[in-house]
Design brief:
The complex is a heterodimer of chains A (204) and B (437). By secondary structure, chain A is mostly helical. Chain A is built from 9 helices and no strands. Chain A is globular. With 437 residues, chain B is of the alpha+beta class. Chain B is elongated and about 150 Å long. Chain B starts with a helix and ends with a strand. The chains are: A mainly alpha (204), B alpha+beta (437).
Chain lengths: 204, 437
């Protein structure tokens, strides 16, 4: 558990210097070529560039720092194996997020090692800090949202988590899901409706 | 859903708490970067794999090549054992050449050669007559006296590779070890559908005597009886050439003389060179393997006489000839092998035991009698005539054919002799006979 880190907020995806999309693509392609040609430094650079965002995405999915770290490590292990099959049509982080999401789902579906989605780290939040109540309330609210998101149907859940927790733009998600951006927006709209109903239900 | 609720929900989703990654997470991930990301090593592995595959392929190619050369070497070794393996047509061609050389009368028209000096290995008897219906012998057709064509013998197309070793094995299996007596061919014992006839070279000192006897009888106006056909054939086939240095097997085939049907005759002659090495006798053994699967019927023309161990010895300076009459089955292809003739002998030139093999193909049997060598024609025509003396065959046209031969080769004593004999005594005409299975 990582209670001290809970209050820290991060931007998703990890903030990057503003660059022209074309130059970023060119940069990624060059990085990939370097990795594929056996450049270990390029691989490490890719890790440095992407792992905070991957970790953040997984943390939002599982609400467990240690587990998120393990899943992040597992995500990269899978990425190395799948690197040859990556065609570069999507952004590198989009591809990594898809792997991370699948890794998380596989973890959740594992019969013996499951993550409790109900009481993630309540025991760690106790304290005498006057702001603790505020923080606790915020945490509880976030946790309710998270629990509701995880109960969404698969396609809606992925769309919501990829967009809000993974920071992927609608266009990237549409490309990843091989559907139109309009369809993605419809998914989001539908997901909001369901989430609203779920959270209202929880409040009762 | 109101815009306010939607915005609030989006805010909650966007403001979801997040933690900083553990400090060692980057190192853990980097530690997992696999070695094989190094494409250089990958390339090395690939080239190692390709190298291994190439080595395996090269080994297989080497193995196959070695096996091929080994088989090739073995088969060549086997062929080398047979000192001569020539198509019959080629033999016939050389026979024609020999005849021309022998011929002293330069006025002789070139096309057909003079009679061959052929010492025939004694024709072994074929299968029992009861089991094989007789062949239609030379038909008494007056039309058979056509002059021999001047065209040279057709060069035999490349025969299929003779399975000499297999044939010899089959013959060896089928032939009983010679105990000094002449054996009848045992078609039933033939292996691989081969009918094997065993012939032992016949030293025939009585050859001249038999023809002289016939001359005497005919001169006295008596009807010859009990004709020794083999002796007559040997006489008219003639002796070997004087310049012959080693034993020679001569095989030739053609249509039967005066035959109006597809009856053919195979002649095999063993020529023994005159003494020069001090030895008088040579060990010789002749075997004929017939492909019965494509033969409708066959008959040995030369008679089979009792023999002893001495029959395996050939007198130097003599020739022995055997004749086999054959009718092929319908549908036989020209390139199919009809017979294989094997001769084992002690070479007077080298003193070594050696052998020679000559195949006979169906196409050889399709050759016209007129285009055969004079030796072949004299041997076969004399056979027809001598068989007719006993009434076994018709003789119509024999005298005319012999006269044509004599006219063709005025300087050939034997052609003249046969023409005189056949003209002086014409046996009564009878219907042709035949033999067969």
């Amino acid at each position: 558990m990582c209670p001290t880190d809970v209050a820290s907020l991060a931007q998703f995806p990890a903030p990057e210097p503003q660059r022209e999309p074309s130059s970023r693509w060119a940069d990624e392609r060059a990085l990939l070529e370097a990795i594929r040609s056996g450049d270990r430094d390029a691989a490490e650079a890719m890790v440095e560039r992407t792992y905070p965002a991957v970790y953040a995405s997984l943390f939002r999915l599982c609400s467990d720092g240690d587990l998120a770290a393990d899943l992040t490590q597992e995500t990269y292990q899978k990425a190395w194996s799948a690197l040859r099959r990556f065609d570069g049509r999507s952004q590198l982080f989009t591809w990594l997020y898809r792997i991370a999401y699948t890794t998380f789902l596989n973890h959740v579906r594992r019969p013996r090692r499951t993550t409790s989605l109900d009481e993630p780290y309540a025991a760690d939040l106790a304290g005498d800090d006057p702001a603790a109540d505020q923080v606790l309330l915020q945490k509880e609210d976030s946790e309710r949202v998270r629990a509701a998101v995880l109960r969404l149907p698969d396609d809606l859940r992925f769309t919501v988590t990829a967009h809000f927790w993974g920071g992927l733009p609608v266009r990237e998600i549409a490309q990843l899901e091989n559907i139109t951006t309009v369809a993605i927006r419809k998914r989001l709209h539908k997901a909001f409706s369901i989430l609203e109903a779920m959270m209202d239900e929880d409040l009762r | 859903m109101t815009q306010k609720r939607k915005a609030e929900l989006q805010r909650k989703l966007s403001m979801a708490p997040v933690a900083k990654p553990p400090s060692d997470l980057a190192d853990r991930i980097k530690a997992d970067i696999p070695e094989y990301l190094d494409a250089g090593r990958d390339r090395q592995r690939l080239s190692r794999s390709i190298g291994f595959s190439l080595r395996v392929a090269a080994s297989i190619i080497l193995l196959v090549t070695s096996a091929f050369f080994a088989v090739e070497f073995l088969s060549r070794t086997d062929e080398a054992e047979t000192t001569v393996t020539e198509p019959v047509a080629a033999i016939a061609e050389s026979a024609v050449k020999d005849d021309v050389q022998q011929q002293q009368d330069l006025d002789t028209p070139a096309p057909t050669p003079p009679p061959q000096r052929v010492v025939g290995a004694g024709g072994a008897s074929p299968a029992p007559p009861a089991a094989r219906p007789k062949l239609a012998a030379a038909k008494p057709a007056e039309t058979a006296e056509a002059p021999p064509p001047a065209a040279p013998l057709p060069a035999a197309p490349p025969p299929p590779p003779p399975a000499v070793a297999e044939m010899r094995e089959a013959v060896a299996e089928a032939i009983e070890p010679s105990a000094g007596r002449r054996r009848q061919p045992d078609a039933g014992a033939a292996a691989n559908d081969l009918a094997v006839a065993r012939f032992e070279a016949r030293d025939d000192p009585q050859a001249e005597t038999e023809v002289d006897r016939l001359k005497k009888l005919i001169g006295e106006g008596e009807s010859p009886a009990g004709v020794d056909v083999g002796a007559v054939i040997d006489h008219f086939a003639g002796p070997p050439q004087p310049d012959l240095h080693d034993i020679r097997l001569q095989v030739e085939a053609s249509r039967a003389p005066l035959a109006a049907d597809d009856t053919a005759v195979i002649r095999y002659t063993i020529d023994v060179p005159a003494a020069g090495t001090g030895e008088q006798l040579r060990l010789a053994q002749l075997s004929i393997a017939l492909e019965t699967s494509i033969i409708h019927s066959y008959r040995t023309i030369s008679d089979v006489r009792p023999s002893s161990d001495e029959n395996k010895l050939l007198t130097t300076g003599t020739s022995v000839t055997g004749l086999v009459e054959v009718r092929l089955a319908a549908g036989t292809r020209p390139e199919q092998r009809v017979a294989t003739i094997l001769l084992d002998y002690v070479s007077p030139a080298s003193g070594q035991k050696t052998n020679t093999t000559q195949p006979v193909y169906a196409r050889d049997l399709e050759r016209s009698w007129q285009s055969a060598s004079r030796r072949h024609r004299l041997a076969t025509l004399s056979a027809t005539w001598s068989e007719s003396l006993s009434g076994a065959r018709g003789a119509t046209g024999v005298a005319e054919a012999a006269a044509a031969l004599a006219q063709e080769a005025p300087g050939d004593d034997r052609a003249q002799e046969l023409a005189t004999l056949t003209a002086s005594y014409r046996p009564r005409t009878s219907s042709p006979t035949g033999s067969g299975r």
